[in-house]
Amino acid sequence: MRARLVVFPVRGRNWCFGRSIEPCVGGAASGNTPSTLKCLWKKISNSNSGSNNVELVVDFVSNKMNNAWMGLEKAPEGSLKNKIHGLGLKLLAGVKPSEIFLKSISKDITAVDIAYPSSLKARLVRRRLRHIAIRGVAIHKKYFYGSVSLLPLTTAFTVLPLPNVPFFWVLFRAYSHWRALQGSEKLLKLVSDNSYTQNSHEPETDDSKHIIHSTQVSPWVLRPSKELEEFIRRGSEDNGLSEQAFSDICRTFCLNMNDVSKFRNTM
C-alpha cells in the first residue's frame, strides 16, 4: 500500500509531519483479528511464525482496548465511566505529535509519496524524515520496555473496588510505544533506499534541487508542492504558522487537524 506523507516547517527547526487520511480499509484487517481468547489461541496454534503470533496478541489487546474506550465514551454524563473517559482525554492530550505520526506508519505500507514545500531541498526533507525515524526507534524502544516493566506493579491496584486505571493506562502506553517503534522502523526502511544512497555523492545542481526518486522499485517519491509553499508563505507569522495556514493545509492535504495542530502547540 502507498501512503502520502506531508512534511513542512512550522518555525525554524521545528517541522510538522503528517499522513494523509485515507478511506477506511480496516474492515478486512479487523476481520482477521481474533475476537475471543479461544479464537486467539487457535490462530496462534496454527501459526508457525513467532512475529505473527506477537502481532495477533497485540491486535487482540488493541481491539479489546478500543471496545472498552468506546464504551466509556458512550457512558452517561456524570457517571464514573464518563469521568474516567474525561481523565483519559486529558492524558491523551499529553501524547507527543511525533508519536502519533509514527503510529500512522502501519506495517502494510510499502511505499510513500512525500509532499513538501517547493522551496526546500529534497535531501533536507528526506534527512528530516530519517532523523525522526531514527530518534523514534531509540525513544519508543526505551519507553516500551519501561511501560512493560511497570505492568506487574500496576496490577496491585486490582484490590481496589474501582477500575484499575493505572494498569490500563500503562498497558495502552506500552501498546502505543510498540506501534510507534514499529512505525519508526518501517519509515526508516522506506526512506533508506540503497539505490539512492549510491548516487547521493553526485554534486547537486539547480535541476536536481528537487529529487524525485521515480524508479519502479523505489519505496519513496519526493514531490515538491507549490500549493503547500504558498500556504506557508501566506500564513507565516513571528511565532510560526498561523492557525488558518494549518487549517488550509489540513483541508487540502487531508490531514487530521487535531493531530497536526499539536506540532504547532508544542513549539
TrEMBL record:
InterPro entries given in the database record: Mit_KHE1
Superkingdom assignment: Eukaryota
Biological processes annotated in GO: potassium ion transport; proton transmembrane transport
Cellular compartments per GO CC: mitochondrial inner membrane
A UniProt-annotated Pfam family: Mit_KHE1
UniProt name for this protein: Uncharacterized protein
Organism field: Turnera subulata
